# Entry
Amino acid sequence: MEKEVKHQPVAANEQFEQRLAKMNSLIEKGENPYGERFDRTHRILEITERFEELENNRVKIAGRLISKRDQGKACFGNIVDQTGNVQIYGKIDVLGNESFERLVSSDLGDFVGITGLVFRTKRGQITVQIEEFQLLTKALRPLPEKWHGLKDTDIRYRQRYLDLIANPEVKETFLKRSKVISTIRQILDEQDFLEVETPVLSGVAGGGHARPFNTHHNTLDLDLTLRIALELYHKRLIVGGFDRIYEIGRCFRNEGISTRHNPEFTMIEMYQSYADYEIMMELAEKLVAAAARAVCQTTQITYQGVAIDLEPPYQRLSITEAIKNYTGIDWLTIDSDAAAVAVGKSLGLKIDDQATKGMVLDEICSEFVEPKLIQPTFLIDYPVEISPLAKKKSDNPELTDRFELFIYGRELANAFSELNDPVDQRKRFLEQALEKAKGNEDAMVWDEDFLIALEHGMPPTGGMGMGIDRLVMLLTDAASIRDVILFPLMRPTSF
# Structure
């Protein structure tokens, strides 16, 4: 005979024990405290939006009990579902003693099913008068103290379910996130882009400058990485004959955590044959503006107290012009890596003596230019040594057809006229390999299969990656990326 195992709750308290006793009492009476299916006729928002139509009609609704006011032979309360909040009202002479007692003895946090008539109280409150009351799920743990104003960010991020219960605006943020993604999908689908899925696990972490997460497949005895970008598989698909593709998916970078960075984040990447980075600029403008209209009903938004105009067209600014504007340095006169390093140090930056011109330029831009780009701005014409997958400019082989879109000083998108010359790409990979050998862990890794794919021929192509999390931050006025990711990575803790 197997020994019965009793699971002891963590940090059980008096309220927990009281609720547990209620649960056991129901079980002893032959009632199931974790009920069966409940067929709703309406969601709560429909009750309020369609009141004139539903008044004095019988409805079946369900949700979490969040308030209760016992008045002897009557009891008021409120329940919520994903769509909204509605008042409920029970009377002993309608429900009968047993059912009324079940209502009165229910706890905040319980899920309940209500069958009743829709009416408006003398004070004008839309209410459902209970004719039948059903407990659907017994909540053993109470809602946190002062849960209506739960502000502790550590609790909110670690126990997002409590955050969603306590703060309706948080739920609204994630509804808007879903709307942003569905809007982008709709636009790309309408333009005949095909949504694809590519591997998350790969032998090569290509397509970006970032440190990957490493893992191992036991059966194949194979070292693998989680993808840092979607790019190189997408270009293989362009080689294979797909004209327009996109993917919305998770990427993983083994780097720092900040208000703008989470090791696991959501990207959308898209590629269009016979296009270039200017077409990608137009597409970026269209996607950002459409997402703003979908969730904000306007392209004139306020982010962290700053007015931002998302209506296209957006400013275009060469990176060398931007550096001259914000530092006074004419980058075009700098003719060597050593001169660039000296300029970087003169600006107070910590620059490695072995840094290239392009690396120094990138550091100067990050420190002195990007934070100033508050209104939407395409920063264009990046140096070739920091753009190993972008096509060189026809009139200046030291620069590339590349842009990064900045809004509120943050990079939102990165795009190229994609490099489709396999000889040049092989040379660029070699240069990146030399950088990695010097100790640059973020340098791009060699991908021979991708080179072989390019050698079969890839048409001229425009490609772009855009950060979904940062776009949602912008459109929901969220100060931290953790506010727009349901379960951000947190340091482990004991409960």
